[in-house]
Amino acid sequence: MAAKLSLAATTALSFLLLLIPASLLFFLSNSSIASRLLSFSPCLSVASTSDRPLKVYMYDLPPRFNLAMLSPSSASGSDRNTTNDPPFPPWPEGSGIKRQHSVEYWMMGSLASQEILPGDKRGDNGIGVVRVWNGDEADVFFVPFFSSLSFNVHGRNMTDPDTEIDRQLQVDLLEILRSSKFYQRSAGRDHVIPMHHPNAFRFHRNLLNSSMLVVSDFARLPVDVSYLRKDVVAPYVHVVSSFLDDDPTDPFDSRPTLLFFRGRTIRKAEGVVRAKLAKMFKGHEDVHFEDSFATGEGIKASTDGMRKSKFCLSPAGDTPSSCRLFDAIVSHCVPVIISDRIELPFEDEIDYTEFSLFFSVNEALTPNYLLEQLRNFPRERWIEMWGRLKSVSHNFEFNHPAERGDAVDLIWREVRRKLPDVNLSMHRNRRLKIPDWW
What we know:
It is a single chain. Helix 5 runs antiparallel to helix 6. The N terminus is likely disordered. The longest helix has 28 residues. The strands form two sheets. Strands 2-1-3-4-5-6 form a six-stranded parallel sheet. By secondary structure, the protein is α/β, with parallel strands linked by helices. Helices cover 37% and strands 11% of the residues.
């Protein structure tokens, strides 16, 4: 009896194995059924969108909003639009720390360098972004206002009379945007606006709280103006020279300094920790901790010092972030980050723990704790981090024209990843009849 049951079970199983492929073949051959069911797969939709270049429309603004500020003598500029005028001018030499917040310039350059070609012949410049000249084709809209440079040129001292120029530029830009059908259509939600300096667009940034802002961190921005879900955290543009020939036989022993810091020690807010660290590290021969200004000679000294150091200290400045982190990365000096509230760029793609060390403010100010951790750090692990730094340095370089995998490319990739939330917000806003209940 058992043998008969076993034979019956085997026969049934064989029949099912034959039936499944036949059913699958019928399903796939019936295109109307398959297409209706497969159309519900969100993965297919996302893949088809991400495979094509991001289409960006760039506003054609008068030069006083951007390129004229590269030459302070012509910063007021004329109102003749030159966004499309080739060639794109180089970033001026000797601009010092103004360079660190020049993200706006490099983003504009990545679009301005694209040729005007018809139809499908438009190229993406190698970075997955294509500039379109018809706003109806665009995924997002880029606003090339150099708000960080405007603050540095017109109102860095806050009380300078030229601050009025910065304020008026913001007023004029708002007027341009509000008269744009594209801005009106989305309430600015699909507009990308750089505000990298913590004081950029400081007079009226609350009026652009729906737009996608490109920032360095969120320290001086109200929570209803800027937040991680909609905005892009971009790296500072490093001011030290990149270490391009860092290939010693023994990288560990080639860097005699244990810990390096060179910069201002008198800071506000979280940055007051710098003055306390200066006292703690005084008298340690393997630590170079120097209070200095970012002059031309100072930048050269920092370049040399970072290249000779195993670890580079990156404490918070006036805000949680600092250009010093990105100077350390391109110097292949393992960053020691001391900041309790720092947000890092490209963190959905890059794991900073592979090449950086993190300490809370309390840990850093505990006597001898930080130095003991660094002095006992495994040699093999440091060499691994050094190697990882070499491999990620390209991700923090700003190039013109932009290159695949560089900082400009990664910023645009971050913009693309914000699009689902942008579209959700726009679509809901169009159909809501009462104020949002959130």
